[in-house]
Amino acid sequence: MKANLPKIALGAWAWGNDGTFGNNLTPETLRPVFDTAMENGLNLWDTAYVYGMGTSEKILAGFLKDLHRDSYIISDKFTPQCENGKPTAMADMIGMQLKLMDLDRFDIYWIHNVWGAPKWTEELAKYYEGKENAPMIGVSNHNLAEIRQANEILKAHGLKLSAVQNHYSLINRSSEDSGILDYCKENGITFFSYMVLEQGALTGKYDTAHPMPEGSDRAATYNPIMDKLEILNTELKKLSFKYNVNPAQIPVAWAIAKGTLPIIGVTKEAQVIDAVKAANVILSEEETAGLEKVADSLNLNVVRMWEKEMK
Asked: Scanning 164, 199, 216, 308, which has the fewest C-beta atoms within 10 Å of its C-beta?
C-alpha cells in the first residue's frame, strides 16, 4: 500500500459541516471536486466519523459507490470520544463506518487522538491481528513517546505502525522539533501532515484588510494574528511568482520537500488543481530554509484546542 500512495491526500473534514470551517457544503457542490481529484490521480481520501458524525463519510461514500475498489484509497479513524462504551466499541465503530461507506475494508485506519490511546491501540491491534485485509495502521495527534508506545503495542500483535498524522505547517513544526519526523523516517512510517495551509491562513487569500469571515473557529484563531501572517504570505507569494503557481501551493510543496505527505482539505475544484500543481513544485533546500526562518521569526502558537505541544 505505502508504495502506491500519491504525494498528497485530500481531506474531507470540511465535508462534515461541523462548524469548523463555517461552510454549508452539499453533495452537489462537492461532486465536481471529487471528480476533478480522481481525474488527476489524487485518489487518497481522508475522513472520520467525527467529521459531522458520519456526514463526511456519507458524502464521500456516495461518490465512491460506482467505482472499482482498487481505484481509490480510504483513510478513516477511530475517534475515542465517539465510542459507545461497550466492550465491543472498536469493532462496533469500524463496522458502523464500513456500513456508512459501503466498504469491505479501509486502506488506512487511525487512532484519532490520545484519549485513552494505549487501550484503543491495543483494541485496534486485537481487531486486526491475523487478518489478511489489515490496513495501514496509524496514530494521529500523538507525541513521540506515545508514537513509540503505539508501535510497541502493535508489534506485540504482529502488526506495525505504518503512519503518523499530526498538525504540521510552516508555523507549527513541533512534530519536527520533537524528533517525530526523524523517528518516522528511521522506522519506515509515513508522516501525514495536516493543516499545512492552516485552514486557509497560508494561502494568500486573507489579510488584515480581508480577514476570514467571522463566525468560524478558524476566524477566531487566525484573524487576531493576520498582521504577522501577512509577512509570511508575502514570502510565499514571492516563490509563487517564481514557480508560476498560486501562493497556496508553496506551503504544500514545502511539506512534500520535508518528506511528509500533506493532507489538503478541498471544497472547490480550484483547490484540487492547486494540489496537483503543488505536487510538481520542487523547492530548493535554500528556499525551504528561507521560509522556515521567516516563519520562526513570527513566534506564533497555533496549537488548537484538540491538540497539545509535541515537545
From this structure: 308
Instruction: Tell me the β-bridge partners of 164.
Output: 139, 191
Residue 179's contacts (CB-CB under 8 Å, 6 or more residues apart) are: 144
> Does pTM top 0.85 for this prediction?
yes
- Cell of residue 261, nine digits: 505527505
DSSP for 178-204, please give it: TTHHHHHHHTTPEEEEE-TTGGGTTSS
Long-range Cβ contacts of 23-29 (<8 Å, 24+ apart): 23/267, 25/59, 25/267, 27/59, 27/62, 27/63, 29/267
**CATH code at position 167:** 3.20.20.100
- 47 and 108 Cβ atoms separated by less than 8 Å: no
Q: What angle do CA 4, 162, 98 make, to 5 degrees?
A: 75
In a domain, 260, yes or no: yes
Question: Residue 304 half-sphere exposure, CB side, CA atoms within 13 Å?
Answer: 18
Give the Cα separation of 24 and 137 in Å (integer). 32
- Domains in the chain: how many in total? 1
Residue 55 lies in a domain: yes
Distance CA 146, CA 41 (A): 33
55 close to 97: Cβ distance less than 8 angstroms:
no
Pairing type for strands 108-111 and 44-46 reads: unpaired
CA distance 196 to 173: 10
Whether the Cβ atoms of residue 262 and residue 9 lie closer than 8 Å to each other = yes
3-state secondary structure of 263: strand
| Contact in structure between 192 and 164 (CB atoms under 8 Å) | yes
Distances (CA, A) of 257 to 120, 252, 279: 33, 9, 10
